[in-house]
Amino acid sequence: MTSTNHSDNQAGPEPIGKTPAFPKIVTDYWLAQAGGDPNGPSVPAEPGRLRIVLDPDLPRSRRIMRLDLPGRGGLLTLTPETAKRAGLDAGGEIGQAELDDALRRAGEALNGADHLFYYASDARETLREETPPVQVRRLTADDAEAFAAFAEAAPEDDMDDAFVELDHWLVFGCFADGRLVAAASMYPWSGTTFADLGVITLPEYRGRGYARQTVRAICAHALSLGYEPQYRCQLDHDASAALARAAGLSRFAAWDVVRDDD
């Protein structure tokens, strides 16, 4: 899910040498083909350059994936069948113009990239030791009335885009003035132990830190359950990216997948 919800894939490069140290679970999942090292030799040093990787186990909905690392290049991962149609070979490098040509040959297009945010290793330890504010707590079925009122007051587009639901795997909320004013929910993502996050704040309560407090509280609880918080938002959603950073998350990469008309 996204945070309050794609644009081109220029994700605001960060300087090389300032990449946070992310947990092994994050680097292993995204960079297994590069030896789990964001600065490893399998990842091109030049931003916008992609190493071609073939993976026969990719599902159809992810038959093409692009991962761009801050300040470096990235990985283009495809199924062998898709790579054949695109005229691409494993191990090579490709730039944007070549990628555009390859996608046309294959009759494919990318959907539009998202930021991927995670807690860096040191930030995770700080979060674990933090006590949430008294106005932030886990929501349960007993909060159905408060959540229904919240959902009624929230903009419909925000509810659709952020995909925050009371019946999700983990739900937290922030209360002010006797009402629920911010809510975040998570669910385990794609058979992993990543916990994908969405968050919404009522418009009249934005800018007061409620979303930040709620995000940190739900993420700390997810960590205590053995899950890794994952925060995704579109590249052009500056407010959502700012919230991620305010909550202590660091941008790991920009991630794009094939547009699946099915």
Textual characterization of the structure:
The chain has 262 residues and is an alpha+beta fold. The chain has 2 domains: 24-113, no CATH class; 121-234, 3-Layer(aba) Sandwich (Aminopeptidase), CATH 3.40.630. 29% of the residues lie in helices and 25% in strands. The protein has 8 helices and 11 strands. The protein has helices at residues 24-31, 80-86, 96-106, 121-128, 144-153, 156-162, 210-224, 238-246, and strands at residues 50-54, 64-68, 74-78, 93-94, 114-118, 136-138, 170-176, 179-188, 194-201, 228-234, 250-257. It has an 11-stranded mixed sheet, sandwiched between helices. Helix 2 (80-86) crosses helix 3. The two termini are 19 Å apart.
Task: Summarize the SSE layout with pairings.
Blueprint: H1 24-31, E1 50-54, E2 64-68, E3 74-78, H2 80-86, E4 93-94, H3 96-106, E5 114-118, H4 121-128, E6 136-138, H5 144-153, H6 156-162, E7 170-176, E8 179-188, E9 194-201, H7 210-224, E10 228-234, H8 238-246, E11 250-257
Parallel strand pairs: 1-3, 9-10
Antiparallel strand pairs: 1-4, 2-3, 2-11, 5-10, 5-11, 6-7, 7-8, 8-9
Helix pairs in contact: 2-3
